[in-house]
Amino acid sequence: MAESLKDKVAIIGMGCTQFGELWDKDVDDLIVDAVYEALADAKVEMKNIQAVWCGTANSGVNASSVSAPLQLQYVPATRVENACATGIETIRNAAHALVAGVYDLVLAVGFEKLKDVGYPGLHPGKLSDKFHPIYPAGGTGPGRYALAATRYFQRYGLTPEEGKRTLGKISVKSHYSGARNPKAHLRRELTIDDVVNAPIIAWPLGLHDCCGVTDGGSAAILCRVEDVKKYAPHHLDDYITIKGVGVSAGPGWGKNKEDYDFTHWPETEYAAGQAYQMAGITNPRKELDMAEIHDCFSIAELIAMESLGFCPKGKAREELIDNGAFIAPQFREAVMRKWGATEEEISRLPEDVLVINHSGGLKSFGHPVGASGGREVYEIYKQIQRKAQEPSRQLEKVRLGLAHNQGGHPGRFVCAVIVVGVPPERM
Predict the structure, then answer these.
(1) Nearest CA to 297 among 114, 142, 405?
(2) Catalytic residue among 367, 404, 409, 415
C-alpha cells in the first residue's frame, strides 16, 4: 500500500520576496532574497542543505539557475516545471525525498522574473514562434476563462449583470486584503463599480478580473518531523507539517469536446481528492481554516471554490460570496460596504466562515508562476505562527490551510493541491 506523507514532513523555515515590477532586481536577487529569509527563519546555514528543488516556468533552464546565485557546493539540485503548479511541485518533490530517507534537510525554491520578458502577459512559450506582441498563435488565457464565465452564467441562471457583480465582489475582496499585505504587488483597494466598469479584456472579464504577471520568489526549508529538534529546536512550538498533497494532469481534450461544460475543473477535483484522502479531510468547508487558491481570473476563484468541495456546484455565489463567508471576519464589513451591501446583508454572517485568498491572491499579490505555490504556503505558515506582517491581517486561529494552483487553461489543466497545518500534538 502506498505510504502517506501525512505529518511526516515539517516545514521549518520559509521566505518570500516582495512581488511586483522589480526592475532593480534580477532573477539571482529574487532567489537569494527568498532563500536567505528562509534560512534565517529556520536558523540553518546553506552549507547544511543537502538537496535543492528549484521551480520556474520561464526564468531558468536548469538547476544552475539556483546553484550559481546560492553558490551551491556540488549538492544535488533539480529544476521542476509544471506550469502554474510548479511552486507546489517543488515542495512535493522535496517532501518525497525526505520520506524516502535519501536526504535529511532540503530546500524548495520557486522564482520568476516575468516583467523583463517584454511581453504583455505570460510568456507565450509554444504559442508563438516570433513572440508577436499582439497576435500570439492559439487562444488567450482571458479568452478561455471568459468562456468559462459565460457558460457558468448560463448554466446557473445568472444574468450578465448578476454575473459581472458576482465576479466583481471577488476582486474587491482580494484587493482589500492585498492592500494590507506589505509584500503584495497591487496594493490598491477597489469598489464594485471600479471592477464592473473597468475596460473589458474578454467579456465578461475586465481589467480588474485578471491577475497581472509579476516578479517574485519564495522558498521553503523542510526536514522529517523527527528531525525538527535537531535542525530547528527554536521552532518546536510553531513548525508546520504537510498533511496531504495531490497532483492531477488531465487528458487535455476539453477544448476539442463539444460537451465540455467549462463550469468545473476536473483536475482540481482529482488533485483535491488525493490531498483530502491523505490528510483525512471529509468536509473541507468545515475542517479548513483558510485556503489560498488559484485566481488568475475572478471566475477561476469562483469555480475553484466549487471544485475544491467548499460548496456544491453552482452555489458559490449563494453560500460563500454574497454573504461574505469567504472574507476574513475583521475585513468583512468594510469589504461588503464596497459592494454596496445593506446593513441587513452585512449582519448575516454564517458561522462556517472559510477565509479564501486572504493574502490578496494572485489577483492582488501577484503571480510569478514558479513562486506562487510557495507564496501561498508562506501565507498559511505565517498565519499559523501568528506572524502576519501586518497585525490587522492576522486571523484569529488557523490550524489547517490549503494551497491550490492550476496551470494551463479550461479543458487542459495540471493542478496541484497541498494541505498544511499544525502537528497532531498542537491540534
Answers:
(1) 142
(2) 367
Kindly name the residue from 84, 211, 223, 311 that is annotated as catalytic: 84
Contact criterion met (CB below 8 Å) for 219 and 108: yes
What span, in angstroms and rounded, lies between the C-alpha atoms of 414 and 126? Answer: 17
Active site residue 185: no
Model confidence band, residue 128 (pLDDT cutoffs 50, 70, 90): very low
pLDDT of residue 226: 97
Residue whose C-alpha is closest to residue 104's, from 211, 249, 250, 229: 229
- 367 as an active site residue: the answer is yes
How far apart are the C-alpha atoms of 239 and 422, rounded to whole Å? 7
| Nearest-angstrom CA–CA distance, 64 and 70 | 9
Average pLDDT over every residue of 340-369: 91
Q: Average pLDDT, whole number, for the chain?
A: 93
Going along the chain from its start, the domains and CATH numbers come out as 9-119+216-235 (3.40.47.10), 138-210+242-426 (3.40.47.10)
User: Residue 223, SS3?
Assistant: strand
